[in-house]
Amino acid sequence: MESYDLVVIGSGVGLSVLNTGLQLGLNCAIVEDTKMGGTCLTRGCIPSKVLVHPADLIRESQHAKNVGITFNIEKIDWDLIAQRMWSQIDESKMMDKGLSTVPNLKVYKGIGEFVGEYEMKVRDTTNHKELGHFKAERFVIASGARSFIPPIHGIEDLDYITNENFFGNRFPKKPWNSLIIIGGGVIAAEFAHIFSAMGTDVTIVEMLPRLVVTEEPEVSKLLQKSFSKHMTVLLNEKAVKAYEKKKQNTVLIKNMETGKEREIIAEEILIAAGRRSNADILKVENTGVEMDKRGWIITNQYLETNRKNIWCIGDANGLYQFRHKANYEAEICTNNIFGPEDQKRTVDYSAVPWAIFSYPQIGHVGMTQAEAIENGYEIFVAIKNYSTVAKGFAMGFETGNEDDGFVKLIVDKSYRILGAHVIGPHAALLVQPFVYLMNSGFTCSLPEYNDKKDIAKVERACPEAGSFMPIYHSMVIHPSLNEVTGWAIGNLKPVNIKMEHHEHHHS
To answer: Is the pTM above the cut of 0.70?
Structure first.
């Protein structure tokens, strides 16, 4: 039986940890059951954005009429769009070739299954032939996640689409005529934007009362209004059955409030109803590693599992499933595996940002208003619309328009930023400065008596750290969309602030 110093499961963000092990001369192995590069490169954020940008241009050309310009789109070259997309995915081939030449690395292209605490077998994905059986001193589980398929009767009898096979053998030769998307989250919103812009008749089926429920209700409302101009958005509707009828894919949906059922039809069905853990495929239970009730691997603040020398990073731990978060974890995990024991670092998820590349675009960092109140904060909230600044008006946004984007800030009573949420053009760019502010203040000198190994962010921060005061004291480029976020602090209003009353004594 082979034995390794380090085995990494998953070739996405896990490659970062693997690279350090290889540089240190360790005897390493990597296990990957699909294309090298992981979800982000081969079936997620990178190829999808190659499709999103042309869709953005189409919608922006339509929006241009608000400022007096009319464009006619003469042609959508789907073949060129696809070619550019595949050029990114195909980088995995170069990665595969490069890894195969590394001297102290064994590459297993198959499905890994734990058969003991530190023991694994790998079998071929097609014929299930055993490719290897080995032990390792250290395991890093970076196995990602896969599409969650809801319990829809008959769905397995149809050749439905997920993000995995879409960026594979189900990629269309041209945009579909019609598409049903089951789900209303991030992936659903981006696919709905892409294909509705390309001319596909899109229907979203979401069982919850609003789209993108991770966002502020106001953000969901604006997205729904914008989407409804270009597609059919069905909320509070649950897909209960799927079947073929008259050579059309048919979904029976049930209203969550009334119980009324009806059929909807389309050329194709895309399932985008969330993600599920791959821990069951890996048979992680054979290691004794703890998982939560949904199957996500449980990690502590050092990204360790409950089993010594088994770590877990990225989507596999179920926390904030974004590549930038996974990159952050890989850096910390690498330090904790290979660095001195007394210099281990902890993770901090208080300022995890993300963007939804729909149209309008959405940017998010930190807590929503409801989350801040639920966590016991007394807060101020500010909302400022694009139309209220010169650049926003210049871009065709006017007060009262349904597509008028905005920023919403959540601030505690000490002016510390708890959350920032933007919907509208360049939302991902506009929200990013708040991420920097929320992570600021680490350079203060610490009390000499404080001998903690790893000091929490709040304890090591200056009093003004994470507040909006740097914005307050800064000049903001005029006219630019930065004014939407920069001037939002002028609109702060107390939500649940308990005002202190002072007694005045007159002599």
So the answer is: yes
